[in-house]
Amino acid sequence: MSNFFQKPRNKAIFGIYLFFVCGSLITIPLNPDMGWGEKLFMICFNIISATIFAFIIYILLNKLMKHEDRKHPSDPARNGINQVIWMKYRKPLILFFYFGSLFAVCTAVFLMPMYTVAEKLVILLIAIVLITIACILAYKVTNKMLQK
After folding, report:
1. Which of 3, 82, 122, 138 suits 102 as a labelling partner, its CA being 20 to 30 A distant?
2. d(Cα 129, Cα 6) in Å, to the nearest integer?
3. SS3 of the chain: helix, strand, coil, percent, to 5
4. Residue-by-residue DSSP string for 80-146
5. Is pTM beyond 0.90 here?
6. Distance between CA 13 and CA 8 in Å, rounded?
7. Mean pLDDT by 10 residues, the chain (148 residues)
């Protein structure tokens, strides 16, 4: 376990994992609409899914970065996970976040029972425009920041 926390990427994965698990443990018991059986199931499901997700991310990042760790072991500027992943996978990452956020927004908007179809379409159009602008700006800012 001591070697695990030597790499900053492992610390980041562990921090995000703890944030998600702690958030689930705090918020799910406070939901008054669920019974205790449902709350217990949701807590277990969230912890198991967070563990599987963190393990998959850990495996993928360490496989992607193994070559870079050997190539530049002492140069932190060239060994940065952000630059390596951004150079190799910038377009798939941006497209993943773009389409993932579009899918999440579409699902959330279309499942709102209190609005008519026209109101849902207007809300969806505004959300799509905001998501598109945010992804374009994030791409440009990140690209400029990591190209230095």
Report:
1. 82
2. 41
3. 80, 0, 20
4. -HHHHHHHHHHHHHHHHHHHHHHHHHHHHHHT-TTS-HHHHHHHHHHHHHHHHHHHHHHHHHHHHHH
5. no
6. 9
7. 68 82 84 82 86 82 65 52 71 83 86 86 92 87 72
